[in-house]
Amino acid sequence: MLRTAVKKGSYHDSVVLMLLTNQISTIQGVKKASVMMATPANKDIFKQSGLDTKELMESTANDMVIVADVEDDSLLDTIMKEAEEFFKKQSVSAGNGKESQSARSWDQALNQLPDANLAVISIPGAYAALEADRALDEGMNVFMFSDNVTIEDEKKLKEKAHEKGLVVMGPDCGTSIIQGVPIAFTNSVTPGSIGIIGASGTGIQELTTIIDRLGEGVKNAIGTGGRDLSTQVGGITMMDMIDAMEDDDSVAVMIVISKPPAKAVREKVSARLSVCKKPVITLFLGEKPEYHEENFYHTYTLDEAARLAVSLVRGETVKEGEVTVDRSLFYRSEEKKTIKAYYSGGTLAGEAAMLIKDALDLKIPPEKAEGYMLKTGGHIVVDLGDDVYTQGKPHPMIDPAKRIECMNEAINDKSTGVILLDVMLGYGSHTDMAGALLPAIRNLGDQAEKEGRKVFFIATVCGTRKDFQGYDEAVKKLTDAGVIVCETNKLAVRTAIQAIGLDFAEGKKEIKSKKASDTIPGKASDKLLQMLAEKPRIINIGLKSFSQVAKEFGCEVVQYDWMPPAGGNVELIKILNFLRNNKDLDIDEANRRVIMKVVASQPVIKDNTRAKNVIPELNNGKVILHAGPPVAYKDMPDPMQGSCVGAVLFEEWAHTEEDARKLLESGEVKFLPCHSVRAVGPMGGITSANMPVFVVENKTDGNEAYCTMNEGIGKVLRFGAYSHEVVNRLRWMRDVLGPVLQAAIKELGGINVNPLVAKAIAMGDEFHQRNIAASLAFLKEVAPVITKMKISDQDRYDVIKFLSDTDQFFLNIMMATGKSVMDAARTVTDGTIVTAMCRNGVEFGIRIAGMGDQWFTGPVNTPQGLYFTGYDKEDGCPDMGDSAITETFGVGGMAMIAAPAVTRFVGAGGYEDALRTSTEMAEITIDRNPNFIIPNWNFQGATLGIDARLVVEKGITPVINTGIAHKVAGYGQIGAGTVHPPMECFEKAITAYAKKLGYTQ
């Protein structure tokens, strides 16, 4: 039976998850299991394995998914416990040694290491190209360990790098050494005067380790990626690095190696090397040169290239190594035995295939097969590092399973005379691959012996004596088990060929005069020369082990704890990149202009008057304003319809609930969103002509905004109640409270809002759920004036008592303030800052600066929080109200840390939860408001400027503090909590804005 476990928002690198898959697969009762991130590509792999489930398909690229075919349901608990222990061990392991800094975004990483010059990328290929593009934009060179990057993307990236004077190493680049610092799968190699430019990984490892064991060293070894010398790419990285290494005075000898290049590209590279002033050694795998040229040497094997380089450095010939073995035990050629070779990487496998074909004297091309470097007459050479073997599975350098499986198949072939393999040491490789292979080697050797056959196990160990696995230890383990261990791959392959009675000829080369081309060398950029001359300053995006190694070698490193941006949606990532790199508009600068408007605003409570006096649209017949984006009466949730009933009764358009509902359903009443007439309304947002509203003017820009007054809590109109008590309170507010406040405000000449907010935020308000300090500060302003007014003592008492009792009274003032400020900010008609958020019980809507009045909507959510006694989440209504304007202004949920007293009331927990929430909100905002300082947040300003791009990129939506209405009209407020907008709103907004700026898919 298939069972699925999903860990939401829990991102782990694919290599780590592959190792966990192997571990879980060993649990008794688990028939088959897979652990991967739920990316589209990985979902296909799950399907191919017969492990696709509904839960998997509903998950996102940021979710870790475990799917297991188990004999018993209870095994899922065992699997999850095993996974937890595994990650704990990974965390402990990653914490050993020197710690590197970590970041969760590009901005954080660059803030920590602003002069970073190398991005090391080891994330899924679907995203690697996009992150590499970002790195180039930030002026960084790129090392792409990632594979599965399209060749079209590779070419674009390399052309872009060339234009910027930078370099892209990779994709699918396993190895580089820069100033002695190992990058990715690399050995601990002595620094020296030899420079190497190679296609990928194992070839460079073989070269550098031979050079090290011969007593010399390597200054820089640059991997270009396996496709760099293809026709499509044209050797861009190779050519740029040749220029740079020639200009690097510390390099005495250069080696250039590659798998078989495209003919035209090979000729271009050779022509450039022919005019090089330094000694150059070339190795184009598959070619068998017959001569050298003066200072321009052409080699056949990696062994030859390494020994020749050392000879040139020393000025003396270095002899070839020897293999001590009893050759009398070898097979004769007429016995027709075959070689089965299993390699960790393509270059060593390619070299083996080349030498075996030479020995077989093949006149016709061998059979082609996916994953095979050679398949002919029973002889096979397999590159186990090929994508066909590693898709969804660990690389053979870190996991012996596939190689053991292949060796079992080889033993069952009676023609097999030799099993040939490599053991790769160094960073990124298995801690003891020799030891991991020994049980299988011994068992298979014993099996062959019992059957009266002899099978020679021949291996090469690629490593140095400084590698943490221990070169001599690995050799000894294999030798003690009867394996013939050879010093280099060439010697191992030759020994294998001799073991089946064959050999190949390798004549001595004469040195001819060099034929220099008319190529004019390019000039290396200062950035490339700097990269080769200094230890790299690295932002590591992906495997943490790469960070740790670089740190050990004295590099400055920031570990970017990457997760797929935009939920892994590649199209959205492209849109984000387009917006970031837009050549016609600096969106960051536009966003800063929006923020400057907000910070410079001077909101003043100017008046309190009937809505019809300031909103002309309310004088055109029966008109009701509602919260949120446009919504028809029939589609409104029940509490909002109930609020409409209350408004009709208040305005005396009808005198009974029945008549009110008939009127509302008749179409005679016109509905408008509050936002369309410069107003905002709490919860249902229902506002009619004679309801009193606060008038807040932003003196900086001269614009006004309006909001009704707060009725208190419980059964109130904004939560859908419409009883006589509710309507009578509204009429008292119209006839008494409003006029009294109007007179007080006029007497004071207006009330500046910013000082009230600044005081209250320091006293523990966040201005959405907690307004008690601001409400009392407002009362403090108006009370002296009210006490001397010529009104009845009862009215005076009632007004002051109401203001004293209504802790949330200031909320509506803050809403009108937020609306006046954000409407002024919207006069900056560019950028991605969110200027409004609201909800109508059906849809959640947002606006962004660059798209003016256009709403971008998605299905509204139901708040999560605490409920009053007798109610639970089943009673809650989907969220309503324009009060989220406070969050766009940088308060409310965005300033949760300011009000630790309210965090439990809204269901957020305690102080630590409030701190975590506000810290997270800071990730999606671009600034802080210096006007509103929060003492218990180290006197930092409140977060300001929700950037829709950051919301989409990071998958973090704004948190909104809110009240909870009963889903049935008449009950009123039944709790309070928090709610998040649907991501869909922000995705739609940035997509529309990108299209407005010229983006095309």
From TrEMBL:
Tell me the superkingdom of the source.
Bacteria
Q: Where is the ATP-citrate synthase/succinyl-CoA ligase C-terminal domain?
A: 343-496
* InterPro entries, A to Z: AllG-like, CoA-bd, OXTCase_su_AllG_h-dom, SUCC_ACL_C, Succinyl-CoA_synth-like
Pfam families in UniProt: AllG, CoA_binding, Ligase_CoA
Domain named CoA-binding: which ranges? 191-270
Identify the SUPFAM superfamilies for this entry: Succinyl-CoA synthetase domains (SSF52210)
Q: Which PANTHER family match?
A: PROTEIN FDRA (PTHR11117:SF24), SUCCINYL-COA LIGASE SUBUNIT ALPHA (PTHR11117)
Name by which UniProt lists this protein: Acyl-CoA synthetase FdrA
Which species does the entry assign this protein to?
A: Lacrimispora defluvii
